[in-house]
Amino acid sequence: MSLTLRAASPLRIGLGLAAVGRPGYITLGRDTDLPAVRSAEALKERAFDLMDAAYAQGVRYFDAARSYGLAETYLAQWLQARPDVTDIVVGSKWGYTYTADWSTRADVHEVKDHSTAAYDRQVAETRALLGGRLSLYQIHSVTPDSPALSDTALHERLARLADEGVTVGLSTSGPNQADAIRAALSVTVSGRPLFGSVQTTYNLLERSAGEALAEAHDAGCAVIVKEALANGRLADPYVVAPEMSALREIAQQTGTSCDVVALAAVAAEPWADVVLSGAATVDQLTSNLAAARVKLQPTQRQRLTELAEPAGAYWTHRSRLAWG
To answer: What are the residue boundaries of the NADP-dependent oxidoreductase domain, all occurrences included (predicted)?
Structure first.
């Protein structure tokens, strides 16, 4: 089942709740972006502020996951408190279990499990919170060796979910995202493609999945881009390295900021249906949303390709980011 996100989200920028659903995450700047006391109630207040601001400014896609701490709970509570909000697309993910127990210093923050048992448990938890509001349910962080790509029993379960009207998708991670996407496109149940969406890390530094995402889009999948700001590396004040000069200069040329240019460059890809903002503050969100009004020139977009890193180097760097 395919999900038409462009029609549902005309702004083409969605809100991801990973940064505010749990106290620890790998985005740069969390020491100042979040309240000094990151209690569940404080993060709920921040999440509500972000969702209110996002909806008021035209965002219509909201993204959560079982492993994002209380993100699904916050989203469910926000929807319950806003009964007039009936026109949004709600997406979530299963496959990781949050294990940090509300600590930023845990040795392990989430545990991956793509088994049928994990799916059965987590889909029940998600449906208990989001009920019929769930539009999209994705396997979290699929890599080419994931059993989720070959487990026919799991595929049958996911096909039944699709028959209930929920689009089934997957998110990808790691230096071989393109291989995972192409493998997913070949998965069928009863002769029908199983996956109707793909959510992938793609940004000015990590562009390796671009061709595969175009193929997924051409095959009818909705394409959602995550980590378009590379966990903060493409946002002020972190754009300081000499090799980032093109991004800084184009931000000056357009009278905007680095985050706006980085998001606008990704949104300009013809296959990108929704680009996620992972903002942790309303000011960051408002800045991110300005990307929807910026049209980069072809020469500017071409110059930004200079920022691309080898996929292996990018993911090695990402793996070293601290859970702040």
So the answer is: 43-308
Does residue 6 form part of some domain? Answer: no
CA angle 304, 310, 314 (to 5 degrees): 90
Query: How do the residues of the chain divide into helix, strand and coil, expressed in percent and rounded to 5?
Result: 45, 15, 40
Q: Is residue 1 part of a domain?
A: no
Planar angle of CA 91, 228, 97, nearest 5 degrees: 45
Number of domains in the chain: 1
User: What's the full length of the chain, in residues?
Assistant: 324
Q: Which pLDDT belongs to residue 29?
A: 92
Contact 261, 292 (CB under 8 A): no
The one-letter amino acid at 57: Q
Range(s) of the domain holding residue 178: 11-319
> What is the CA angle 258-198-163, rounded to 5?
145
* pLDDT for residue 111 is more than 90: yes
5 belongs to a structural domain: no
- Strand 192-193 versus strand 167-172 pairing type: unpaired
Assessment of whether the complete model's pTM goes beyond 0.90 = yes
Beta strands per DSSP E along the chain: 13-16, 61-63, 89-94, 96-98, 110-112, 134-142, 167-172, 188-189, 192-193, 197-201, 222-226, 274-277
* Residue 224, SS3 per DSSP: strand
Domain holding 43: CATH number?
3.20.20.100
Q: 3-state class of 244 per DSSP? A: helix
Q: What is the mean pLDDT of the chain?
A: 96
